[in-house]
From TrEMBL:
PANTHER family: C4-DICARBOXYLATE TRANSPORT TRANSCRIPTIONAL REGULATORY PROTEIN DCTD, TRANSCRIPTIONAL REGULATORY PROTEIN. Gene3D superfamilies: 1.10.8.60, 3.30.450.40, Homeodomain-like (1.10.10.60), P-loop containing nucleotide triphosphate hydrolases (3.40.50.300), PAS domain (3.30.450.20). This is Sigma-54-dependent Fis family transcriptional regulator. Keywords: ATP-binding, DNA-binding, Nucleotide-binding, Transcription, Transcription regulation.
Length: 641
């Protein structure tokens, strides 16, 4: 073997009878530029670096040392060293006979030294790393001459991903070589890997347990895990809060003993899953109850059912979430209501007083006066401000659907009904306010059902039989005179009295003309931003025209007219020419139509129109709805210059 080594080192000839692993290792060693005559390791960590390396591999060292000691016990006194290296070939721990340590020290085969192929050429440690497999390197198979007196056997240690994390090596005098030595090293390395796997699995189980604990306690719903016999294995904090019991009071108990509901007997016995089943949860030995939605799902291991997972959602929490995401919230407060007119200020004071009670409110007034705005403001001023505000237009929903909207329905109540049923607006508004707009459009049949809810404070879903208590404040609104509707037989008198506890009547916009400029400025700024235009000013005659108009559609019409003007306008100044002709008042009709009126009235109408348009005859004619030639003829007729 020595001759073959010399032949390669000095002449570059590679004898093909040499083991393939050694041939390839020698070639790599030459490629790395390793000096075959080096007398000792050249790459050695200082004490601080070694300590850091050992700390980094603390777990591997702790697991390996007992097994290394066991291995050494078989070869003790025979001149062998047992060594643990990291994945790069640095010696981390060693044990063995004193005399062998002295020999090893001469070639710096010591803790902290690198014995990778790049550093020391072919050797059991470095070559084991290179081939990722066990190997025995004997005498002159070593690339560096200083190692020729040694025989070394090494095996890799892998993690659970199959990556090398360390090397176990046993080295001794060349004359002590034995084929079983490598087998002992391989077996010990495998034992180390096994121990690592056990610890990793234990750690994984601990991590999973911690994750399960963290997950279950951060759920927004109660959770119970039961075995196939119905015994409670695990619960979470939300469940403890819902039922008023601690984990130690529940663990190991039969779920049917904890809850006084037949439902739990059924799901324990059944293999079927349950999705959002609504029940009244009753706790055995307690008066505590809660309306909840329960979902149960089987837990399987290797296709065998080992238990069930139950999730319990408090119904009022579910409703809160539905309201949050469906926008069932009032956004307007009394501070947002624009107006300094004496009438609107008086109405605001009445509404504020109404908000501070819990009585039903009836808002009346023409269409577009802002009844929905006042309803939101009343809710936000009340003690129910943090609860849902749900608005429903009684005139905008078909009569045959209004009942299911208000009161909900059960599974199978009618063709097309959602599976599992659905709660109505009264249930969703629990604790809050329901705004019944256009209450005057409600059918007499539906009025009977609504009256029952007002009297009994409870609802029964359509197609169902369960009574659901509701705590809801009602604000109703109408543009009709309900007194007259009662006389006509279109509205129930008893329902009217129930709703009309606190009447609030909103004034039409024509009775608060001094508020029109304020409202207009607010809408112009808001609408211009939305449309993407910027108006720095408006012509005074623009506001004058707005104030003169009677606004049959009230504030809603004002907003629509302003939006039309902004879209139509030039983007920097609003003038009366942006307004429709009807806003010029009756004198527009006087000029446009050939009505028998005094000439002086017609003349005043023409003058007023031209004045509003800053003397621009084309604009005046356009907004009067007549041709320019007609305008000129009438100007000439009345001597207007």
């Amino acid at each position: 073997m020595r001759e073959m080594w010399e032949d390669f080192v000095y002449r570059g000839h590679l004898n093909k009878s040499i083991k393939t692993e050694i041939q390839e290792a020698w070639l790599r060693s030459r490629k790395y530029g390793v000096n075959p005559h080096v007398q000792s390791a050249t790459k050695i960590l200082d004490s601080d670096e070694l300590a850091e390396l050992q700390q980094l591999n603390h777990e591997l060292i702790c697991i390996s040392l007992p097994l290394m000691e066991n291995l050494y016990s078989f070869v003790k006194g025979s001149g062998f060293l047992v060594i643990l290296c990291d994945e790069k070939g640095y010696l981390m721990k060693s044990m063995g006979d004193k005399e062998t340590f002295e020999l090893a020290n001469r070639i710096k085969f010591i803790e902290g030294a690198s014995w990778s192929e790049e550093a020391m050429g072919t050797n059991a440690i470095g070559t084991c790393i290179a081939i990722d497999g066990p190997i025995q390197v004997w005498a002159s198979e070593h690339y560096t001459e200083a190692c020729h007196p040694w025989t070394c056997s090494a095996a890799p240690i892998h993690d659970s991903e199959g990556e090398i994390i360390g090397i176990l090596n046993m080295s001794g005098p060349v004359e002590k070589v034995h084929p079983h030595t490598l087998g002992m090293v391989v077996s010990t390395a495998a034992a180390i890997e096994k121990q690592l796997q056990i610890i990793e699995k234990t750690r994984g189980n601990a991590v999973m347990k911690s994750l399960l604990e963290a997950t279950t306690d951060t759920l927004s719903e109660g959770m119970i895990i039961i075995d196939t016999a119905g015994k409670i294995l695990k619960t979470n904090e939300i469940l403890h809060r819902i039922i008023g019991k601690k984990e130690h009071e529940l663990a190991g108990r039969d779920i049917c003993e904890v809850f006084d509901n037949r439902f739990f007997q059924e799901i324990t016995a059944s293999r079927a899953n349950v999705m959002d089943q609504e029940i009244k949860l009753k706790i055995s030995g307690s008066e505590r109850q809660a309306r909840v939605l329960i979902t149960s799902k089987g837990i399987f291991q290797n296709k065998k059912k080992i238990g069930k997972l139950l999730t319990i959602k408090e119904l009022h929490k579910v409703r809160q979430m539905i309201n949050q995401f469906s926008g069932n919230q009032a956004k307007v407060t009394f501070q947002d209501i624009i107006g300094q007119n004496e009438k609107i200020r008086k109405v605001q004071l009445e509404a504020i007083a109404a908000a501070r009670s819990d009585s039903n409110v009836l808002l009346t007034g023409e269409s577009g006066t802002g009844k929905d705005i006042f309803a939101q403001a009343i809710h936000n001023e009340s003690d129910r401000r943090n609860k849902p505000f749900i608005a429903i237009n009684c005139g905008g929903i078909p009569r045959d659907l209004l009942g299911s909207e208000l009161f909900g329905y059960e599974d199978g109540a009618f063709t097309g009904a959602r599976r599992g049923g659905t709660p109505g607006k009264f249930e969703l508004a629990e604790g809050g306010t329901i705004f019944l707009d256009e209450i005057g459009e409600m059918s007499l049949e539906m009025q009977v059902l609504l009256l029952r809810v007002l009297q009994d404070k409870e609802v029964v879903r359509i197609g169902g039989y369960k009574v659901v208590p509701v705590d809801v404040r009602i604000i109703a609104a109408t543009n009709k005179n309900l007194h007259k509707e009662v006389v006509k037989g279109n509205f129930r008198e008893d329902l009217f009295f129930r709703l009309n506890v606190i009447p609030v009547t909103l004034p039409p916009l024509r009775e608060r003309r001094d508020d029109i400029p304020r409202l207009a400025e607010y809408f112009i700024e808001k609408l211009a931003t939305r449309i993407g235009k910027s108006y720095s000013e408006a012509d005074p005659q623009f506001f004058e025209a707005l104030q003169r108009y009677d606004w049959p559609g009230n504030v809603r019409e004002l907003q629509n007219i302003l939006e039309r003007a902004i879209v139509k306008g030039n983007g920097w100044k609003l003038g009366p020419e942006e307004l429709p002709a009807e806003l010029f008042g009756n004198f527009c009709a006087v000029v446009k139509e050939d009505l028998p009126m005094k000439d002086e009235i017609k003349k005043q109408a023409l003058v007023r129109s031209i004045d509003l348009c800053d003397g621009n005859y084309s604009r005046a004619a356009r907004h009067l709805g007549i041709s320019r030639s007609t305008l000129y003829r009438q100007m000439e007729k009345y001597g207007i210059r």
